[in-house]
Amino acid sequence: MKNKYRILGITSGGFEGFSGVNNNLFSEIGKKYELIDIVDNKLSGFWKYYNALYCFLKTPGFNKYIKPFNEIYHGETSYYRFRTNYYFVERTKAAERILKERTDEYDVILQTGWIPAILEQKQIPRCIYTDYTMKLSEKEFPQWSTFLSDKDKNKWIQMETKSYKNANAIFTSSEHTRKSIIYDYGVHKEKVLTVYEGTDIEKIPDIDKKYDYNIILFVGVDFERKGGYILLNAFKKIREEIKDARLIIIGSRPKINIEGVEVKGFVSYIEKMHYFSIASVFTMPSFAEPFGLVFLEAMAHKIPCIGTNVCAMPEIIQDFETGYLVEPNNSEELADRVISILKDHELARKMGTNGRKRVEELFTWEKVVKRMSIEFDKLI
């Protein structure tokens, strides 16, 4: 039986945005509440291209004038067009217009991410679900906090701060992000709640997994940030110890030709599930990771996971229990940890079983929404 509350979602990228989080989150919310609609307030039409042109003209350097259009549009210009005050302000205006028109239709607003800005507190509760902050980007991966000017950056952080302070509740993907919102932005800790992210555990059967294939799996689009080249260096040492070890790379297409490395690029959901089913160990030694949803998928498949000891990864992977945590940019340590798992099938089985149990207990979308529900009950 559904709860009587009516929820309106606000997103960027619609149902499929936010790395698939929107789809899973709002699908689960729809099981428990009356989900009125999911509003995608991204820039479109003339204003989308106006913003892109502005960013193109402001992007430093002259190389932009000689690069192919698609390369510059989807490269630097694409990066900057999501980091202008114009983008923040216009998306906020669009959201406010929609909310005003539909004010009698909902009891609570849930937006994924901190855009649009919440300019003031209103009678109808408004909640934010986010996995990272701009302040964390500054400290942990400065490439994500580069703006066209310091003025743009300062204004952005002011609006981000206003959103957090005016929200009735803030749900975070990790305790790491929760602490940033409290200490970096001065938000009262009582209204910031860690709810984590989830996976569709019911779609992944609990099988008697085999660890015989010596397959190392990497899944990620941003190969460099996610430590892909560190893993390639580690793989050289791994192959010296385990001659038939294979590394399968999904989501990225690095231009490499290394024996034992298979670059698959983008694959279908069914193909990805196949590679999870045959992998002996999953590793993504990221330099920075807002959360790391793919670790949950791997753990649900009973695969031992190796990540780094930064950002939210220590909240997902229990060191020596569900896998290992290593230092970023340390291929030697990474290789040793992978080798220890590939050589010891009982260790792999123990870690894989522990990982599956941890996902079932903590990281399902049903449990994420249940944690949110506690706060909804207080607000409505």
TrEMBL record:
Alphabetized GO MF terms: glycosyltransferase activity
**Entries under Pfam families matching the protein:** Glyco_transf_4, Glycos_transf_1
Q: Which residues form the Glycosyltransferase subfamily 4-like N-terminal domain?
A: 78-202
The answer to whether UniProt assigns keyword Transferase to this entry is: yes
What are the entry keywords?
Answer: Glycosyltransferase, Transferase
Enzyme class, one word?
transferase
**What EC designation does it have?**
2.4.1.-
Q: Which InterPro entries match?
A: Glyco_trans_1, Glyco_trans_4-like_N
What SUPFAM superfamilies would the database entry show? UDP-Glycosyltransferase/glycogen phosphorylase (SSF53756)
Name-wise, this protein is Glycosyltransferase
What sequence ranges are listed for the domain Glycosyl transferase family? 205-358
Q: Which organism is it from?
A: Methanosarcina mazei LYC
